[in-house]
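Archive entry. Fields below.
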Amino acid sequence: MTRAGAKFWVGAAAVMLLALAATAILKNEYWFYAGFVVLQFVVLATAWNILGGYAGYVNFGTSAFVGAGTYAAIVAIKALAAPLGVQILLAAGIAGLLGFATGLLTLRLRGIFFSIATVAVAIVLETFIVNWRFVGGSTGIQILRPVDTGLFGSYTKMLFLVMVGLSVAAAAIARTLEISWIGRGLRAVRDNEEAAESCGVPTLRLKLIACTISGALMGAAGAPMAVYQSYIEPASAFSLNYSILALAMPIVGGTAHWSGPVLGALLFGTLQQVVSATISSELNRLVIGVMLIVFVVGAPAGIVGLWRKWAAKRAGAGSP
Amino acid sequence: MNGAPLLSVEGLVKRFAGFVALSEIRLAVAPGERLGLIGPNGSGKTTLINCVSGLLRPEQGAILYDGRAITRMPAFERTRLGIARSFQIPRPFRSMSVLENLMVPLDYVAHRGQLRDTGAQDEAMALLAQMGLAEKAQAFAGSLTQVDLRKLELARALAARPKLLISDEAMAGLSGAEIEEVLALLWRLNETGITVIMIEHIMSAVMRFSQRVICLDAGKIIAEGTPTQMVENPEVRRAYLGA
Ligand SMILES: Nc1ncnc2c1ncn2[C@@H]1O[C@H](COP(=O)(O)OP(=O)(O)O)[C@@H](O)[C@H]1O
Ligand SMILES: [Mg+2]
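PREDICTED_STRUCTURE:
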């Protein structure tokens, strides 16, 4: 393993230990309830960035994949009484398949046309769920949380830890892709797709890989929502918020490096929780809008880009 | 021409929304040949090599490479078979360093399926040195001058280790000395057995380099022959000077 690789895994282990310690120390359930939401966005932003950041294909339909994951979990609970781990795997599988199918149908489209097609997928899928009685249709469905085993203190704490695990897994997958030949190929696609093809890059295949992995991670992030919220309706499971935030967070954090979406989601997600808890949830939208404008105009490479610039300047000033 | 051609194009037709950019193009290129492709602006030279390299699908006709039909083959597979091209308007991977630009074809063609560090970096550096880009290896491709971008185009095409190299006006904007350098490089490559198709507006260069020259005008081949024959050909003169 490289030094950077070792550093990543030490960091990942430290994060998981810290999270475990927090569940043992902190008594107030609110922290874990809110933390779950922030971490869900870490997964979503990271997943979005695999296609949107690395390959430059902007997905406006994150909600389709999250909703597919949530409803896959609901089916797993209702039909199979499956445990959470199985729900997540099934959700990832279904959403990954959805990603592959969406990719096959739409990835030949360039730029804005691809983005519009992803919106259509979200609308079609939501309509399908609204008309599916087995999962509650438009009125929604009540999900009973399993009996609390007391493992990790409470069910909410356990869900929080699951999301920590998913976040670490998502970051690890994104990082692995990024530094592999696949990452280089995806960057080539983003920079110039025809030149990439001419350099031997199988562009359609790479985009399909990215779309499938991205979709699977989004679905995995959506799965625990079934037991987290205990009442699920299509309008919230396919909320436009997912699509907007999963795109906004990587842009704020920086799309070139795996840490960009993670930072963007932590910052943005935390700010959102604070604003909606202390001021109002209406103001949330405004905060998102203003931050997006500030970053798109002032720092298109995001927080990571600003950091790199600053580090380069410091290195430059340090040498004679 | 002795033996089987490396590339042959048969009855190729390419239209853009009714406008006929190529009509019934027939040509063959022998292994190891140096072919010049000339013709006024808009005569279809770039369109022809877009069809050969796979970025465009022709409406009619067939393209054979090394004895097999590649007319419907995706571009990346053609590159892996040995067809590489440079772009007339440079298309660098802007977010990457100059070195990494070359790593893309090295990763995906020559060093495909190999584990890390099998000399790809060294190979990239050698190519950059050959093109006089060695000091700029770590610079962002987006920050290069037009002239350096053209050199990068050629270096990146070479990184795919082609059997057939198509250079689309690689010398535009280069100084006299730089043109000589690129010509010398293409000569050397040709001596190692690489077939070269050179599209060029700089007549002195293409006439000196080519064994055979084809002239396109309005999507048709209007003349074909040795450089000397071409210079004397009235059709070619008319196409170039304007009717
Ligand atoms: N993608 C395209 N769409 C529409 N017309 C095109 C396209 N590419 C080339 N053409 C047209 O085809 C003709 C040949 O162009 P091109 O092959 O670029 O010529 P050359 O390389 O010889 O200068 C021109 O009239 C050009 O406008
Ligand atoms: Mg041209």
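CURATOR_NOTE: Residues 68 and 149 of chain B are 33 Å apart (CA to CA).
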